[in-house]
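To whoever picks this up:

The parser on our side crashed when reading a file containing two proteins. I've narrowed it down to the boundary between the first structure block and the second sequence. Both blocks are reproduced below exactly, byte for byte. First block:
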Amino acid sequence: MSLRVLTVDDSRTMRDMLRIALSGHGFTVTQAVDGLDGLDVLRGECGRGEGPDVIVTDINMPRLDGFGFIEAVRADAAHQGRPILVLTTEADAAKKARARAAGATGWIVKPFEPATLAAAIRRVAA
């Protein structure tokens, strides 16, 4: 059974790259365009019993950024243990610490190697 991954990123190009890269590594990918959309997708999937095994989110997004998204996911008891990887262009240590404090499981800086991201997803899903 393939792992299910929810990707949350406001860049259409990045969402397409993630879908292609992760599908190529055997993952089932669902996409959201920002944090608010990510919460809607997460609620819908989980309501159907199809929630993601891992969430991969950007930080810099409109409407609800990655920090707010992570905090909202962690505030819901149903998702407190769900792994969340941050995939961002940000390399700032303070932002990384803020994401960890919000509940992020890991941090990967773009550009990314598909095999490295796939390995990280498998590792946190185990």
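<<boundary where parser fails>>
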Amino acid sequence: MALETTIIESKLTERFGAEVMNFRMERDIFTLEATPAAIKEVIRFMKEDETLRFNFLTDLCGVHYPDNDKSAQFAVVYLLHNWIDNVRVRVKTFQNGDKPEVDTLVEVFAAANWMERETYDFYGVIFKGHPNLKRILNDEGMVSFPMRKDHPLEDAGRTDKDDRFFGRTPNNYEPTK
């Protein structure tokens, strides 16, 4: 018997109730949301349940939604794959914009280690309980997180370029007439 999205939804709602929500198809991938408090146990259940068997963490990444209300400005997105039934699922959890943090999944999937470090490095999401949460690609001295939408696109301190050559004037980068 193939693993249907209705089976996934019913097993998760039966086990976690209101902690899982917004089940839908999103760009041909079954997608759901879980609260930050429950995300680790939801994913552990999805891996260990003998029917669901999502035994592979394909990817983990962050997303910044600066226009959302403060309680949902950051998301951590987990892509899981059930190799046996060849089913993929996307699980999202949203965090507060002031202090985005969620439990680490390193105990559940060892591959989450570097993925969580990269998400921390670029978005500033804290993975509580991570064994080595430090920058992985950017300089340790950085104080900002470059994938956040409020990160400046250009270095204001650069002296090696002249905005006139880029069709911009120094005042607010408006084109000259």
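After patching the parser it read the second block fine. The chain has three helices and seven strands. The chain has one domain: 5-137.
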